[in-house]
TrEMBL record, chains A, B:
PANTHER family: BIFUNCTIONAL UDP-N-ACETYLGLUCOSAMINE 2-EPIMERASE_N-ACETYLMANNOSAMINE KINASE, ROK (REPRESSOR, ORF, KINASE) FAMILY. Keywords: Kinase, Transferase. This is Sugar kinase of the NBD/HSP70 family, may contain an N-terminal HTH domain. Belongs to the ROK (NagC/XylR) family. It comes from Amycolatopsis australiensis. The lineage of its organism: Bacteria, Bacillati, Actinomycetota, Actinomycetes, Pseudonocardiales. One of its GO terms (molecular function) is DNA-binding transcription factor activity. Signal peptide: none annotated. Residues 18-60 form the HTH marR-type domain.
Length: 387, 387
């Protein structure tokens, strides 16, 4: 019962199979690709030719002559044609980053500024200038940007940023205010940072990425896939209840994690105006600063205990400002996790600082476009052939 | 570029496609099946024939003559051959249930007993007697049991029940103590009850099922799929922290949800020895019983607030003993959810009582085997052809 499958569907699938094999295991010769994909050599040659023409693959020099092998040209992902743009609006800065298909950083810029309470239009006009600069630089070196993703700190759905407490924004549609020649998608900063950490950081397949800023968000990666819940709003770690009778939170509740470990609570408890001052105070052993970090770490430990029980976490990555504060936070967090999870789970989860720090969100944002191209190269190949 | 796909792989896939189409949309004629699957009529006829021979599909009487149609025999899932066995060890009872492929209940029995502190061997010997009775009755009516799943209240992995606090068990391998002529798998009661609720209850595709017993577990269904975490231990709602300085919990922590809303805490606060006494007291308006339910409901509301923030829940189903207590618990739970989630999420999640009550776990357990047969009918068809 051999089945005729539609030509274009099968071709799209095979293009993805070949590109994926090179992405995971390249450089590979055409012969090796035929071996790993199970496709015939002539099919592989045609597909590789199309992918090279579309600028998704590139040929390298002849392979080394092995004992039994013969020299052959190998193919690798091409970093010379397709690129993607990651953007971020943070309370303290705007950032842009361009990645090529190999994950190479082709542009990265960060503009420090205080976006607190700024009007969306003003911030997005500045972001547009930064993005335009990134696109110009990218075009100058011959790359074509396939798309852009914008990371924002707050719950997102259908292109709407529902609320960004750090910025004082509600129900903003950033993409509609940005005038860029590429499509711009919106996504949550913690989710994108978690993907950035997965693709370009530790490479672990299961972890919770915690983004500590004024708000505290989290992105859960399970078996290499982002868990985003029924409506994309999962990971609101900042409003996990630490103490039901605790301080009033801006969400209307009491004793949410943010009221203990959010940046504003940390700075107030440490008696310092800004994060760099807190780090300086911690480094010189200031008692108030140390106590502030200890209390925040304990609250974070309680909230993460609840998260581990609900989500079954083996690994927790502390990102955002928690990366900088890791030396002072990690002890109290680990103590609480050990005391509360040791009996039930045997080993408490592994706790680490993010390897990417503040770059995680733009890496995840740009990476999202890169991975979309890798998963569906057919449209690129078709476009290249029609051009 | 037409591709030859291996005969047996394609056939297995097509058997699944045809069986799935009938399962979702039957009764269907062969012509209608060809239409919805895109397969040729002769391929469909061959596949349907094999599925009928294997006892997975059955033919019904001729279809009504439509305006333009012609009479045709329709096929439906067959309830006459394949069955599955769901088993449950609860603290208060043992239960067994047999479902046929259509979801029809072919056997159901529950033996009330106090399993608290009983030796695993004793309980499993009794369960084996009940399961043997279920299998005998099933064979008597001509059904063949494809497999069994056993629901237990506690974290499970690789056939090991790590701990069942309700029973006082640790590291038990129940399947090794059961002597049954069918393969027995082990799974967590709250996860299975969530699947039972999904397949045979409300039919919603996204919800958290909360299982209130002596321990409190939860099963999360996202887009019709169970979320079980990196190692299968997700959903330990009972150890979500409600008050970090609260009562000592058997997990070694303090102020976990179970210390406020577990069955033992509820009974102690209500001043009654057992659940039926609590319900009686509530029905006559006893002040201590009402206060106990109010406090438990508020604690449940706090823990569920954390769960909603982390998991993005639109719907929460209260099961286990919480189903019976729903009239008294739901008010306090909803009040806390409204107060804490209204601002962030707009609408708080919908709260309902389980429609299946104590039957959810055995329905989910038996349903797991049914759905496995529906997802991979090829092995059944092959076996029927070899017999």
């Amino acid at each position: 019962m051999t089945q005729a499958v539609r030509h274009d569907v099968m071709r799209a699938r095979n293009l993805e199979v070949v590109l994926g094999a090179v992405s995971r295991g390249g450089p590979l010769t055409r012969a090796a690709l035929a071996e790993v994909t199970g496709l015939t050599k002539s099919t592989v040659s045609k597909l590789v030719g199309d992918l090279v023409d579309a600028g998704l693959l590139a040929e390298t020099g002849p392979a080394r002559v092995g004992e039994r092998g013969r020299p052959g040209v190998e193919v690798v992902l091409s970093g010379a044609r397709v690129a993607s743009l990651g953007l971020e609006i943070n309370v303290d800065y705007l950032a842009a980053r361009v990645l090529d298909l190999t994950g190479g950083v082709r542009f990265a810029a960060r503009r420090e500024r205080d976006n607190r309470g700024s009007r969306p239009k003003k911030v997005l006009t500045e972001l547009q200038a930064l993005a335009t600069e990134a696109l110009a630089e990218t075009h100058r070196v011959g790359l074509e940007v396939a798309g852009a993703v914008l990371a924002v700190s707050g719950p997102v759905g259908d292109g709407v940023l529902f609320s960004a407490p750090n910025l004082g924004w509600h129900d903003v549609r950033p993409a509609e205010l940005l005038r860029l020649p590429v499509p711009v998608e919106l996504d949550n900063e913690a989710n994108l940072a978690a993907l950035g950490e997965f693709w370009y950081g530790g490479g672990e397949r299961d972890f919770l990425y915690v983004s500590g800023e004024i708000g505290i968000g989290a992105g859960l990666v399970v078996n290499g896939t982002l868990f985003s819940g029924a409506t994309g709003l999962a990971g609101e770690l900042g409003h996990v209840v630490v103490a039901p009778q605790g301080p009033v939170c801006r969400c209307g509740g009491h004793g949410c994690l943010e009221t203990f470990a959010g940046q504003e609570a940390l700075l107030a408890a440490g008696g310092v105006p800004a994060l760099p001052d807190l780090v300086t105070a911690l480094e010189r052993g200031d008692a108030a600063a140390l106590a502030a970090c200890k209390a925040a770490g304990q609250a974070l430990g309680v909230a993460l205990t609840s998260a581990v029980n609900l989500l079954d976490l083996d690994r927790i990555v502390l990102g955002g400002v928690f990366t900088q504060l890791y030396p002072w936070l990690s002890g109290p967090v680990a103590e609480v996790l050990n005391a509360r999870l040791g009996l039930l789970r045997g080993a408490p989860p592994v706790l680490t600082a993010s390897r990417l720090g503040g770059d995680a969100a733009t890496l995840g944002a740009a990476g999202r476009v890169v991975h979309r191209v890798l998963a569906d190269p057919a449209s690129f190949v078709t476009r290249a052939q029609e051009a």
